[in-house]
Amino acid sequence: MIQYDMRIVSLLFTLILSTGAPPAQSDALSVRIGDTRVAFSADDVRALPQRTVTVPEDGGTSRYEGPRLADILVRAGATLGPGAAGGGLTLYVVARAPDGFRAVLSLAEIDPDYTDRDVILALRRNDAPLLTDDGPFRLIVSGDRRRTRWVRQVAELTLLTAPDVK
After folding, report:
1. In what order do the strands lie in the sheet with 60-66?
2. What mean pLDDT comes out for the span 74-91?
């Protein structure tokens, strides 16, 4: 009969679990506004009015399709435009990916009452669904010279108010 050192068995078991495939990607989007949290499925996001944004990318151009970020926030219960708190000028959105990557946009950069810039939550690129590494949702900020705020695999959007600085 073979005897096993349980510490070694436990360590091996832990290593096997930790090096396995990453958890399955969720096609759910969570939007948090204050104490309210609203969940959107990919179908919910697809049901919103879609926009197409053509942006320079990889030496050419790419076409991304998806709803405006502003439309998602309104559907979740946010007030945009002049009716927003402080005219919306003290509000900002944090877009977060499952790996912890985050980007911040002021509401004035998103709200069509304040900007002509298109900020969308893309579902498609060049007439095809986003690749797994990018989707199911990717934040596209037209007009940004660098794509550092183009968050891949967006899982959560949080609308916050900037603190009063004294």
Report:
1. 51-57, 60-66, 124-125, 128-129
2. 82
